[in-house]
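Schema walk-through. Below, the input block comes first and the output block second. Nothing else is stored per chain. Lengths vary across the set, and this one has 215 residues.
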Amino acid sequence: MSFWEYLVSRHQQLLTDAYQHASAVFQCMVIATALGVALSVLTYRSMWAGNLAILSTASLLTVPSLAAIGLLIPLVGLGVPPTVITLTLYGLLPVVRNAVVGLRGVDPNLVDAATGIGMSRAARLLRVELPLAWPPILTGIRVSTQILMGIAAVAAYASGPGLGNEIFRGIASLGSANAINQVLAGTIGIVILALLFDAAYVLLGRLTIPRGIRV
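--- output ---
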């Protein structure tokens, strides 16, 4: 069976796996972004605290994803829970690092001007600092998403959702008629999803970042 014939015969399952893969990555990125930005807001004003937040999240990436999922299985079981926890933790570093750098890079004169017109600390953060730090934060989100696209494939080891199941089935049946087709279908599907997500982030940036800041 050719690769194209395999895609046609398995298109329904592949579309389902692609949707589950994209959904898992998207939901975990939402959680990782919320946690990462919150952690950055709490720590960026202190040099040591901000650096500690970056170092702590960076240390998570030193743990192999397969090992992380394997360690979580006895604690939370198979399926979605270990997938969500692993992806969320692995998605933190680029968001935290870029948010801390972005918030620290806001022009102090602008913050002083906002203070001078009577803005509270919360108002300065929400209306001045975070909007100005949004471009690097969005870049961090883009990087995290690309990382998670690949790591999400490993979730199949724990019976997690996504295109990783196609890849693992192919690897487990190497030598069979459709083994290579399965690996190729899962791999190409992940690459396409990564490109689509990145295109969506480019569009989001054009819609949310003022032209002056982009320039």
